Amino acid sequence: MAGTRPGGRTARTRTAVRELFAEGHDQPSVREVSERSGVHEVTIYRRWGRIESLVLDVAVTQLNDESPFPDSGDLRRDLLDWAHSVAGQVKTREGFALFHALAAATSPLAGGKPAPTGADAARYLRQRTTQMQRALDRVEAAGGKPPTAAHIFDVVLAPIYLRAVFGYESPDQDLDALVDQALRTT
């Protein structure tokens, strides 16, 4: 299977989306991305279908590349490192915009039908869960009783995102307490 060429059309398109978000665009258009990347609009539509799918692809790629779940063998340390990485990302304009795009892609539309990019978002969640599960399996193999990935998302990740969305405190405030709670309630 061929990979993405560094500097190829996909890379240029993803870079253009990130630059537009970093400049404050709430939702760039395919035309803006095309002009910025030098990739024809038709090529963008052929590859991603719609702007929401492109933005989701960029968000997923950034999260997986820039904050993969660590796997050092020390679950508490790994959870803290990962939580700090995620909290740091959502504090940036670009990171928050990409989080918003990911959240929008997973929200149901009127009538209870999943968003067209929901399958892509589900694939992201599976990738993230798979990364985390390797570390959790190691703890279990050593005789420990680790929390489930879903529990970690609920207790650690959800508060980070809620704090970022509502801005009531820094997303990285009390991450030690959140991680300890996730590990304690297993």
TrEMBL record:
Coiled coil: none annotated. Keywords: Transcription, Transcription regulation. It comes from the Bacteria. Residues 70-181 form the Tetracyclin repressor-like C-terminal domain. This is TetR-like C-terminal domain-containing protein. It comes from Amycolatopsis speibonae.
